[in-house]
Structures are given as C-alpha cells and as structure tokens.
Amino acid sequence: MVLPKDFALAVVASSSPDLSVQEKFELYIEAFEFIQTKSAKEKPAQTKNDPIKTVRDLKKMGL
C-alpha cells in the first residue's frame, strides 16, 4: 500500500524545478487526494477477495 504523503512527495520531487512554491503545493495536494481516493476504491475490492484468506485463517484456528 502506498502512503499518500510519500506518493505526493515523490510527485513533487520529480516535478519541474520551474514550478513555483504555490504550484508545487497545489501539485502535492492533488497527488495526495488522488492516491487517497485510489486507495479507498481499491480497499473494498481487496476485501472482496479475502474470503479464501478468511477460510484459511479459520482453519488454522481449528474452526
């Protein structure tokens, strides 16, 4: 899982050095919000695939 803060910092670090501080800040906010939204959408999809893992975990517990 990608941490939003780390992703946003990487995006800003790889951006053009010609951007102003204001533009870099806006880019940071946009990247942060983008990865948060993407992560939130992927999270339910991951839990839908977890029944197999849940069954395995229950078997390990002897249930």
How many strand elements?
A: 0
Q: Helix fraction? A: over 70%
Q: Biggest β-sheet, characterized?
A: none
Q: What is the N-to-C succession of helices and strands?
A: HHH
- Output the number of helix runs: 3
Rg, Å, rounded: 19 Å
Q: What is the overall shape?
A: rod-shaped
Query: So what's the oligomer here?
Result: single chain
Mean pLDDT comes to: 84
Care to describe what's here?
With 63 residues, the chain is mainly alpha-helical. The chain has one domain. 76% of the residues lie in helices and 0% in strands. The chain has helices spanning 4-13, 21-48, 51-60.
Compact summary:
By secondary structure, the chain is mainly alpha-helical.
Any descriptors?
63 residues
Mind sketching the topology for me?
Elements: H1 4-13, H2 21-48, H3 51-60
